[in-house]
Amino acid sequence: MAASDTIGGTPRQRATDYLLRRHRFRMAEALPWLIAIAVFFIFPTRMTFGSQVLVMVMFALSLDLILGYAGIVTLGHAAFFGVGAYTVGLAAARLDWTEPISGLFAAAIAAGLVGFVTGWFLLRYRGLTLLMLTLATAILLQETGNLRSDISGGYDGLPGLTFKPLLGVFDYDLYGHTNYLYALTVLAIIFFFVRRIVYSPFGQALTGIRENVRRMHAIGSPVHRRLVTVYTIAAAIAGVAGALFTQTNAYVTLTVFDFDNSAKVMVMLILGGTGRLYGAFVGAAVYMVLEDYFSKLSPTFWQFGIGLMLVLAVLFAPRGILGLFERIGDYLAERKRS
Amino acid sequence: MAALQVEKLNRTFGALPVTRDVDLTLERGARCALIGPNGAGKTTLVNLITGVLKPHSGRVLLNGEDITASSQADRARRGLARTFQINQLFRGLTVLENLCMTVGERDGHCNNLWRSSGSKREVIDEAIGYLDSLRLTDDALKLVRELPYGRQRLVEIAIALAQKPRVLLLDEPAAGVPSSESHLILDVVAALDPDIAVLIIEHDMDVVFRFAKEITVLVQGAVFTQGTPAEIMSNEMVRAVYLGQEGHRGGHHG
After folding, report:
1. Which domains does chain B show, CATH number per domain?
2. Average model confidence (pLDDT) for chain A?
3. Segment A324-335, tens digit of pLDDT
4. What pTM was estimated for this model as a whole?
5. In the Cβ-directed half-sphere of B239, how many Cα atoms lie within 13 Å?
6. Which residue of A16, A200, A218 is in closest CB contact with B114?
7. In chain B, positions 118-147, which contact chain A (CB-CB < 8 Å)?
8. What was the ipTM of the complex prediction?
9. Which residues contact B8 (CB under 8 A, 6 or more apart)?
10. I need a surface site. Which of A196, A314, B75, B150 has the fewest CB within 10 A?
11. Considering the domain A47-337, what is its CATH architecture?
12. Domain ranges of chain A
């Protein structure tokens, strides 16, 4: 309290200042980026794994827009990741279009289109109905790919893809250094966009839909249009994540559409904390590092470790790791005051 | 031209008619009350007027325009606001954000994805203005769910006011509030802008007879009678079907 008292005298000024300043960058927000850069220098041999973590952070970030902010629960977010992954995969394998950055844009447009069309129809529904319909969307796309395995490569995938050097200059090295910096740069740009959206009036309206959709209708909000808009944006970002996945791995198979992929990204986001922007960073990184560690520890029983971690998270951090930190912070502040 | 006109409105749930040939007119600045026993279809009528439910026949006119086919949001943007019998608020957001959201949606700011929501000073100032008028400013930065229920009821009204409505439907504004605090809410209702047409649903006859200039009595989905408070109070049939034991309480206000 002491700190906020010094900002302005009257409650009116304090309230105004709070909203005027809320969107400003805080020092703590530099932390994940500093860590990501530090990782580049500390673990130079683990950059391929590092790129995969960054791709999943981006994927989880896109889910945060619709799950954390708009409150839409979906089990088919892998559909858009897959569309993006296959856009650059097919372009490279079938059309010899191997320029990486234009590939990202193509993936964003393709996934965004799929998001717009499916969102237009599906977002009239909520709850379990929506859950089933989004799940079905991803399965339908996967089976379409399977049906035309002559084009998609089926479950064997499209292996051994090669891409042109980044910006025509930076070639890919064995250790994935270029890929890591590439993925980090794209993530930073995407994050900047997502952060703007979250703190915009549109982002506020999304939280309104999450908090009380009946009230949103009553104050005249075009709820469906808002949901389709954010769903399209999230789909496009998931598509970029999928495209980066294909580019950094140099292969893609139909497993990108797996239910497993949709479920995993949701678990990561919930583990980190929904509706907080940085929950995607924490959740994806913690999940993937532990998965990597457990699978080396015990190649047969590693999933036990993941399961245990999730049980502990549900018991002790129901609002995610960031939620837990917040609670600890509040508790310490409370103690200091009394 | 009437601010709100309801013509021959009908609605059934299955075989049960819940709204039967209801006619209702609110002139500009009207102070109307809708009363009736439990299950008379009062809230259903509000839901039909606001577009939560669609009528099976009949028309709803807002400032002379037919809005029967319009969505709920469209009606809200045209100046029709309501409060809910049970609070419908953004419980996890601050009181101030609840108001800023309403102003933002009203003026179309929420279509903007790029600028920060704090960058429009006038939105915040206007939102705080509504909080000031309901003496909620001290709670501006509290989450709605942290407020006592009576304060939350005031936020409910503040949101409706922030819509700058021409017609306001109040569904039991003091419901669930301890009687020691209900006068705060009723004072706010009594002080509403005289240009707004207000329809209030209320069970407390003291409030109805003090506030309303016209009263509509709804029984089993149909308009039983309409009239001034004096007419309603002296109507023996209304006493019989509804006022009953409560009739005498309104008497000394008449």
Report:
1. 1-79+165-254 (3.40.50.300), 90-163 (no CATH)
2. 91
3. 998 898 889 888
4. 0.91
5. 12
6. A200
7. 118-121, 124-125, 128, 131-132, 137-138, 140-141
8. 0.89
9. B21, B22, B23, B57, B58, B59
10. A314
11. Orthogonal Bundle (1.10)
12. 47-337
